[in-house]
Protein backbone atom coordinates (compact mmCIF):
# COMPACT_ATOMS: atom_id res chain seq x y z
CA UNK A 1 0.00 0.00 0.00
CA UNK A 2 1.39 3.41 -1.02
CA UNK A 3 1.87 6.21 1.50
CA UNK A 4 -0.97 8.20 -0.12
CA UNK A 5 -3.36 5.22 -0.01
CA UNK A 6 -2.45 4.59 3.62
CA UNK A 7 -3.03 8.28 4.42
CA UNK A 8 -6.47 8.27 2.75
CA UNK A 9 -7.47 4.99 4.42
CA UNK A 10 -6.57 6.24 7.89
CA UNK A 11 -8.37 9.55 7.25
CA UNK A 12 -11.58 7.74 6.26
CA UNK A 13 -11.32 5.55 9.36
CA UNK A 14 -10.96 8.62 11.57
CA UNK A 15 -14.06 10.15 9.97
CA UNK A 16 -15.98 6.91 10.55
CA UNK A 17 -14.76 6.76 14.16
CA UNK A 18 -15.93 10.34 14.78
CA UNK A 19 -19.36 9.57 13.34
CA UNK A 20 -19.80 6.41 15.43
CA UNK A 21 -18.68 8.14 18.60
CA UNK A 22 -21.02 11.10 17.98
CA UNK A 23 -23.94 8.65 17.72
CA UNK A 24 -22.90 6.98 21.00
CA UNK A 25 -22.64 10.33 22.82
CA UNK A 26 -26.05 11.45 21.58
CA UNK A 27 -27.71 8.12 22.46
CA UNK A 28 -26.23 8.07 25.96
CA UNK A 29 -27.11 11.69 26.75
CA UNK A 30 -30.70 11.26 25.53
CA UNK A 31 -31.05 7.84 27.18
CA UNK A 32 -29.54 9.07 30.42
CA UNK A 33 -31.85 12.09 30.45
CA UNK A 34 -35.00 10.05 29.73
CA UNK A 35 -34.07 7.26 32.19
CA UNK A 36 -32.75 9.73 34.81
CA UNK A 37 -29.46 7.78 34.82
CA UNK A 38 -26.35 9.64 35.97
CA UNK A 39 -24.26 6.63 34.97
CA UNK A 40 -25.27 6.95 31.31
CA UNK A 41 -24.94 10.74 31.19
CA UNK A 42 -21.53 10.68 32.84
CA UNK A 43 -20.37 7.97 30.44
CA UNK A 44 -21.52 10.24 27.60
CA UNK A 45 -19.39 13.00 29.15
CA UNK A 46 -16.45 10.62 29.24
CA UNK A 47 -17.05 9.86 25.56
CA UNK A 48 -16.57 13.57 24.89
CA UNK A 49 -12.96 13.21 26.05
CA UNK A 50 -12.43 10.66 23.33
CA UNK A 51 -14.33 12.71 20.74
CA UNK A 52 -11.91 15.56 21.41
CA UNK A 53 -9.02 13.12 21.11
CA UNK A 54 -10.38 11.85 17.79
CA UNK A 55 -10.89 15.39 16.46
CA UNK A 56 -7.29 16.26 17.34
CA UNK A 57 -6.05 13.01 15.82
CA UNK A 58 -7.88 13.79 12.58
CA UNK A 59 -6.65 17.40 12.64
CA UNK A 60 -3.02 16.33 13.11
CA UNK A 61 -3.41 13.76 10.34
CA UNK A 62 -4.80 16.33 7.89
CA UNK A 63 -2.15 18.85 8.92
CA UNK A 64 0.64 16.66 7.53
CA UNK A 65 -0.62 17.45 4.02
CA UNK A 66 -1.09 21.20 4.54
CA UNK A 67 1.94 23.47 3.86
CA UNK A 68 2.77 26.70 5.69
CA UNK A 69 1.87 30.00 4.01
CA UNK A 70 3.07 33.60 3.99
CA UNK A 71 0.49 34.50 6.65
CA UNK A 72 0.81 31.20 8.57
CA UNK A 73 4.56 30.61 8.58
CA UNK A 74 4.18 27.93 11.25
CA UNK A 75 1.16 26.42 9.50
CA UNK A 76 -1.93 25.70 11.61
CA UNK A 77 -0.28 23.88 14.53
CA UNK A 78 -1.77 26.16 17.18
CA UNK A 79 -5.35 25.53 16.01
CA UNK A 80 -5.11 22.02 17.43
CA UNK A 81 -3.71 23.33 20.70
CA UNK A 82 -6.56 25.85 21.04
CA UNK A 83 -9.08 23.10 20.32
CA UNK A 84 -7.46 20.89 22.95
CA UNK A 85 -7.55 23.70 25.52
CA UNK A 86 -11.23 24.53 24.93
CA UNK A 87 -12.22 20.86 24.81
CA UNK A 88 -10.43 20.00 28.05
CA UNK A 89 -11.79 23.11 29.81
CA UNK A 90 -15.38 22.21 28.90
CA UNK A 91 -14.77 18.64 30.04
CA UNK A 92 -13.47 19.80 33.42
CA UNK A 93 -16.66 21.86 33.85
CA UNK A 94 -18.66 18.78 32.80
CA UNK A 95 -16.88 16.69 35.42
CA UNK A 96 -17.71 19.30 38.07
CA UNK A 97 -21.39 19.27 37.07
CA UNK A 98 -21.57 15.46 37.10
CA UNK A 99 -19.93 15.40 40.54
CA UNK A 100 -22.45 17.85 42.01
CA UNK A 101 -25.46 15.99 40.59
CA UNK A 102 -23.95 12.61 41.53
CA UNK A 103 -23.46 13.70 45.16
CA UNK A 104 -27.04 14.96 45.24
CA UNK A 105 -28.25 11.59 43.94
CA UNK A 106 -26.28 9.80 46.64
CA UNK A 107 -28.22 11.74 49.26
CA UNK A 108 -31.54 11.44 47.43
CA UNK A 109 -31.52 8.28 45.22
CA UNK A 110 -33.75 8.18 42.12
CA UNK A 111 -35.26 5.02 40.61
CA UNK A 112 -33.43 3.95 37.43
CA UNK A 113 -34.46 1.36 34.81
CA UNK A 114 -31.50 -1.03 34.94
CA UNK A 115 -32.58 -2.89 31.79
CA UNK A 116 -32.57 0.15 29.49
CA UNK A 117 -29.40 1.38 31.18
CA UNK A 118 -27.70 -1.92 30.33
CA UNK A 119 -28.92 -1.86 26.73
CA UNK A 120 -27.70 1.67 25.94
CA UNK A 121 -24.35 1.15 27.72
CA UNK A 122 -23.89 -2.16 25.85
CA UNK A 123 -24.40 -0.26 22.56
CA UNK A 124 -21.77 2.22 23.70
CA UNK A 125 -19.37 -0.59 24.62
CA UNK A 126 -19.76 -2.21 21.18
CA UNK A 127 -19.30 1.11 19.35
CA UNK A 128 -16.23 2.16 21.36
CA UNK A 129 -14.60 -1.24 20.91
CA UNK A 130 -15.31 -1.06 17.15
CA UNK A 131 -13.70 2.39 16.95
CA UNK A 132 -10.63 1.13 18.81
CA UNK A 133 -10.31 -1.76 16.36
CA UNK A 134 -10.63 0.67 13.43
CA UNK A 135 -7.65 2.63 14.77
CA UNK A 136 -5.56 -0.35 15.84
CA UNK A 137 -3.59 -0.68 12.61
CA UNK A 138 -2.75 3.03 12.36
CA UNK A 139 -1.72 3.05 16.03
CA UNK A 140 1.30 0.85 15.30
CA UNK A 141 3.36 3.62 13.68
CA UNK A 142 1.65 6.88 14.71
CA UNK A 143 1.88 8.13 18.30
CA UNK A 144 -1.05 10.50 17.76
CA UNK A 145 -3.35 7.71 16.53
CA UNK A 146 -2.05 5.39 19.26
CA UNK A 147 -3.21 7.88 21.90
CA UNK A 148 -6.70 7.99 20.36
CA UNK A 149 -6.75 4.17 20.19
CA UNK A 150 -6.01 3.78 23.90
CA UNK A 151 -8.60 6.45 24.77
CA UNK A 152 -11.31 4.57 22.88
CA UNK A 153 -10.30 1.19 24.28
CA UNK A 154 -10.39 2.60 27.82
CA UNK A 155 -13.80 4.15 27.16
CA UNK A 156 -15.13 0.77 26.05
CA UNK A 157 -14.27 -0.66 29.47
CA UNK A 158 -15.95 2.30 31.21
CA UNK A 159 -19.13 1.57 29.22
CA UNK A 160 -18.86 -2.07 30.23
CA UNK A 161 -18.78 -0.87 33.85
CA UNK A 162 -22.10 0.93 33.30
CA UNK A 163 -23.51 -2.33 31.87
CA UNK A 164 -22.44 -4.15 35.03
CA UNK A 165 -23.98 -1.37 37.14
CA UNK A 166 -27.30 -1.71 35.27
CA UNK A 167 -27.25 -5.48 35.82
CA UNK A 168 -26.55 -5.02 39.52
CA UNK A 169 -29.48 -2.58 39.79
CA UNK A 170 -31.74 -5.12 38.08
CA UNK A 171 -30.69 -7.88 40.48
CA UNK A 172 -30.51 -5.93 43.73
CA UNK A 173 -32.60 -2.80 43.19
CA UNK A 174 -29.75 -0.69 44.61
CA UNK A 175 -30.24 2.50 42.60
CA UNK A 176 -27.40 4.11 44.57
CA UNK A 177 -25.04 2.22 42.26
CA UNK A 178 -25.96 4.60 39.42
CA UNK A 179 -24.50 7.79 40.98
CA UNK A 180 -21.55 5.77 42.33
CA UNK A 181 -20.70 4.69 38.78
CA UNK A 182 -21.04 8.31 37.62
CA UNK A 183 -18.44 9.40 40.20
CA UNK A 184 -16.07 6.69 38.96
CA UNK A 185 -16.55 7.99 35.43
CA UNK A 186 -15.71 11.52 36.68
CA UNK A 187 -12.35 10.11 37.71
CA UNK A 188 -11.85 8.78 34.18
CA UNK A 189 -12.78 12.19 32.70
CA UNK A 190 -10.32 14.00 34.94
CA UNK A 191 -7.62 11.47 34.11
CA UNK A 192 -8.01 12.28 30.41
CA UNK A 193 -8.89 15.99 30.51
CA UNK A 194 -6.53 17.44 33.13
CA UNK A 195 -3.19 16.51 31.44
CA UNK A 196 -4.59 17.77 28.10
CA UNK A 197 -5.70 21.05 29.73
CA UNK A 198 -2.35 21.58 31.45
CA UNK A 199 -0.24 20.77 28.40
CA UNK A 200 -2.32 22.92 26.02
CA UNK A 201 -2.23 25.84 28.49
CA UNK A 202 1.56 25.55 28.78
CA UNK A 203 1.88 25.66 24.99
CA UNK A 204 -0.44 28.69 24.68
CA UNK A 205 1.58 30.49 27.38
CA UNK A 206 4.73 29.63 25.38
CA UNK A 207 6.23 27.88 28.40
CA UNK A 208 9.48 25.96 28.13
CA UNK A 209 8.61 22.27 27.54
CA UNK A 210 8.87 20.32 30.83
CA UNK A 211 11.53 17.94 29.48
CA UNK A 212 13.94 20.80 28.72
CA UNK A 213 15.98 23.02 31.06
CA UNK A 214 17.20 26.39 29.64
CA UNK A 215 19.99 26.56 32.24
CA UNK A 216 21.30 23.15 31.18
CA UNK A 217 21.27 24.17 27.52
CA UNK A 218 23.04 27.47 28.28
CA UNK A 219 25.65 25.67 30.39
CA UNK A 220 26.26 23.15 27.60
CA UNK A 221 26.70 25.90 24.97
CA UNK A 222 28.99 27.94 27.24
CA UNK A 223 31.17 24.86 27.79
CA UNK A 224 32.10 24.87 24.09
CA UNK A 225 35.55 26.45 23.53
CA UNK A 226 35.21 29.90 21.97
CA UNK A 227 31.84 30.72 23.58
CA UNK A 228 31.90 33.48 26.20
CA UNK A 229 28.22 33.86 27.06
CA UNK A 230 24.69 32.81 26.12
CA UNK A 231 21.87 35.34 26.56
CA UNK A 232 18.39 36.23 25.33
CA UNK A 233 17.60 32.51 25.37
CA UNK A 234 14.01 31.53 24.60
CA UNK A 235 12.60 28.01 24.25
CA UNK A 236 8.95 27.32 23.51
CA UNK A 237 6.68 24.96 21.58
CA UNK A 238 4.46 25.97 18.68
CA UNK A 239 2.83 22.62 19.40
CA UNK A 240 4.26 19.69 21.43
CA UNK A 241 6.14 18.21 18.46
CA UNK A 242 7.63 21.51 17.22
CA UNK A 243 10.02 23.08 19.74
CA UNK A 244 11.73 26.37 18.89
CA UNK A 245 14.95 27.83 20.34
CA UNK A 246 16.40 31.30 19.83
CA UNK A 247 19.40 32.85 21.55
CA UNK A 248 22.36 35.20 21.26
CA UNK A 249 25.85 33.75 21.68
CA UNK A 250 28.90 35.88 22.51
CA UNK A 251 32.09 34.50 20.95
CA UNK A 252 35.79 35.30 21.10
CA UNK A 253 37.12 37.19 18.07
CA UNK A 254 35.45 37.86 14.73
CA UNK A 255 36.99 35.16 12.52
CA UNK A 256 34.18 34.21 10.07
CA UNK A 257 35.43 30.64 9.41
CA UNK A 258 35.85 29.94 13.14
CA UNK A 259 32.44 31.43 13.91
CA UNK A 260 30.71 29.29 11.27
CA UNK A 261 32.33 26.13 12.64
CA UNK A 262 31.31 27.15 16.15
CA UNK A 263 27.72 27.70 15.02
CA UNK A 264 27.57 24.20 13.50
CA UNK A 265 28.97 22.73 16.70
CA UNK A 266 26.38 24.50 18.86
CA UNK A 267 23.51 23.39 16.60
CA UNK A 268 24.71 19.77 16.59
CA UNK A 269 25.09 19.70 20.39
CA UNK A 270 21.61 21.19 21.03
CA UNK A 271 19.98 18.93 18.44
CA UNK A 272 21.58 15.69 19.63
CA UNK A 273 21.50 16.47 23.35
CA UNK A 274 18.03 18.01 23.72
CA UNK A 275 16.05 16.98 20.64
CA UNK A 276 15.56 20.59 19.43
CA UNK A 277 15.97 20.82 15.66
CA UNK A 278 14.39 24.22 14.88
CA UNK A 279 16.63 26.99 16.21
CA UNK A 280 17.86 30.48 15.41
CA UNK A 281 21.23 31.44 16.90
CA UNK A 282 22.68 34.94 16.57
CA UNK A 283 26.45 35.15 16.98
CA UNK A 284 28.14 38.32 18.24
CA UNK A 285 31.25 39.64 19.97
CA UNK A 286 29.43 41.87 22.48
CA UNK A 287 25.99 42.17 24.09
CA UNK A 288 23.92 45.01 22.65
CA UNK A 289 21.99 45.50 25.91
CA UNK A 290 24.35 44.50 28.75
CA UNK A 291 22.09 45.90 31.48
CA UNK A 292 18.99 43.85 30.65
CA UNK A 293 18.20 40.63 32.45
CA UNK A 294 18.18 38.74 29.13
CA UNK A 295 21.91 39.26 28.78
CA UNK A 296 22.63 37.38 32.00
CA UNK A 297 20.92 34.03 32.28
CA UNK A 298 22.14 33.63 35.87
CA UNK A 299 19.58 36.28 36.88
CA UNK A 300 16.74 34.08 35.64
CA UNK A 301 15.28 31.52 38.08
CA UNK A 302 16.56 28.04 37.28
CA UNK A 303 14.02 25.38 36.36
CA UNK A 304 13.62 22.91 39.21
CA UNK A 305 14.25 19.75 37.25
CA UNK A 306 16.44 16.72 37.93
CA UNK A 307 19.46 16.36 35.66
CA UNK A 308 18.62 12.67 35.10
CA UNK A 309 15.60 13.60 32.98
CA UNK A 310 17.91 15.46 30.59
CA UNK A 311 20.18 12.50 30.07
CA UNK A 312 17.68 11.01 27.62
CA UNK A 313 17.03 13.37 24.69
CA UNK A 314 13.39 13.92 23.74
CA UNK A 315 13.16 13.45 19.96
CA UNK A 316 10.33 14.89 17.88
Q: What is the domain total for the residues? A: 2
**Counted beta strands:** 3
Helix-strand makeup class: mainly alpha
What is the subunit organization of this protein? single chain
Mean pLDDT: 76
Please state the overall shape, judged from the principal axes of the Cα atoms: elongated
Which band does the percent of strand residues land in?
A: 5-15%
Strand order of the largest sheet: 1-2-3
Notes on the protein architecture:
It is built from eight helices and three strands. It has 316 residues and is mostly helical. The protein has two domains: 3-204, Alpha-lytic protease prodomain-like; 214-310, GMP Synthetase, Chain A, domain 3, CATH 3.30.300. Helix 2 runs antiparallel to helix 3 (77-107) and helix 2 (38-63) packs parallel to helix 6. The longest helix is centred in the first third of the chain and has 33 residues, at 3-35.
At a glance:
The protein is mainly alpha-helical and about 325 residues long.
Which features would summarize this protein structure in a list?
316 residues, mainly alpha, Alpha-lytic protease prodomain-like, GMP Synthetase, Chain A, domain 3, 2 domains, 3-stranded mixed beta sheet, 9% strand, elongated, disordered C terminus
Amino acid sequence: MTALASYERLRSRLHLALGLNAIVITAEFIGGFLLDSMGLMSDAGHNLVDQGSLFLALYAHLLTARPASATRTFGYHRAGVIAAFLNSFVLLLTALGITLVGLKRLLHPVTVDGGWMMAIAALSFAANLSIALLLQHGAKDDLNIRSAFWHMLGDAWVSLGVVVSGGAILLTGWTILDPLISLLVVGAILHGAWPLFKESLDVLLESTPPTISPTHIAAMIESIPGVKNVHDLHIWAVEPRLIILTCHVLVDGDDEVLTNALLHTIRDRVSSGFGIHHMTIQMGTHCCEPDTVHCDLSKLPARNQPVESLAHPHHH
